[in-house]
Design a protein that fits this description.
By secondary structure, the protein is mainly β. It has helices spanning 118-128, 152-162, 230-239, and strands spanning 2-8, 18-36, 45-47, 49-53, 56-57, 63-67, 89-91, 104-106, 112-114, 132-136, 147-151, 175-178, 194-197, 205-213, 242-251, 253-256, 260-266. The protein has one domain: PK beta-barrel domain-like (M1 Pyruvate Kinase, Domain 3), CATH 2.40.33.
Length: 269
């Protein structure tokens, strides 16, 4: 970790303008995996690179099934109500909107349905037991913030206490980091700081805003949708039900698997 006296450029797409700031800079490690989840609660799509825009990774959580007749502030159908949603795999590629979006969904039975088809809508409605409709929202449909980050160490630490190795897909993070440290939950200390990706300017950046409060979805096996309650119970016991962090986009740009990652904290804040 080192302290630097750095001028932050207030250019379009950049961090807010400041004259000169004293920063703590720590090189963390590198990006191990990038995943977008085109349809809320369905399976993710790993990618070697992704554009980080103001609404998160391009193509992430742009679709969700809405529960008809639900007037609550959160009408979206998730795997907390229909666990089998995690078994639906978005496939295909349509970039006509400027983002990488799926064209079809492979169902648990192995059939391939068009994403916007009545056939898929009917199947999801039947599983839920009530009517749903697919919604497309360009700005994304997020629980807390548009970007989620977790480390391999945190996943390994939870697995070690929960009784075995855990599939990282349980945690549904956009950005998985390898920081070369075995201590879990180091992400908690990043809240209030900024993660900076890559080694050439301008570098994409995510401002870490809060810890990721977990729900029963991490109990679901991504290959079977079977639940293992030990996973969430372990997170509650070890770290007050938090695993990973959420963030907002401070600077846009392309992130790639293997990119170095640094943590920046303005000491004057």
């Amino acid at each position: 970790m080192r302290r630097t006296k750095a001028e932050v450029a207030g250019q379009p797409g950049g961090l807010p303008r400041r004259e000169v700031s004293w920063c703590v800079l720590k090189e963390l490690g590198h990006v191990r995996e990038l995943v977008r989840y085109p349809v809320k609660s369905m399976a993710g799509v790993p990618t070697e690179s992704a554009f980080l825009g103001w609404h998160g990774l391009a193509g992430d959580r742009r679709f969700a099934f809405r529960r008809l007749g639900d007037d609550s502030g959160f009408p979206w159908l998730t795997a907390s109500r229909v666990a089998e949603l995690v078994l639906y795999q978005p496939v295909g590629l349509d970039e006509s909107s400027g983002e990488p979006l799926p064209t079809h969904v492979r169902t648990p039975a192995g059939t391939r349905e068009e994403l916007r088809s009545l056939e898929l809508q009917r199947e999801v409605s039947e599983r839920f037991g009530s009517s749903v409709e697919l919604m497309a929202i360009r700005s994304g449909i997020f629980d807390a913030a548009p970007v989620s980050v977790i480390t391999l160490a945190t996943i390994a630490g939870i697995g070690g206490e929960a009784g075995g190795s855990l599939d990282r897909r349980r945690f549904r993070a956009n950005i998985l980091l390898d920081i070369g440290d075995r201590e879990p939950f180091l992400e908690d200390g990043w809240v209030g700081g900024t993660l900076v990706f890559g080694d050439s300017e301008p570098r994409p950046a995510v401002r870490v805003t809060e810890r990721d409060v977990r729900c029963m979805m991490i109990n679901l096996d991504p290959d079977t949708a079977k639940q293992d309650a030990r996973v969430l119970k372990t997170v509650v016991r070890l770290n007050e039900n938090n695993a990973g962090v959420y963030g907002t986009v401070a600077r846009t740009g392309t992130i790639r698997v293997g990119d170095p990652v640094s943590f920046v904290l303005d000491e004057r804040r």
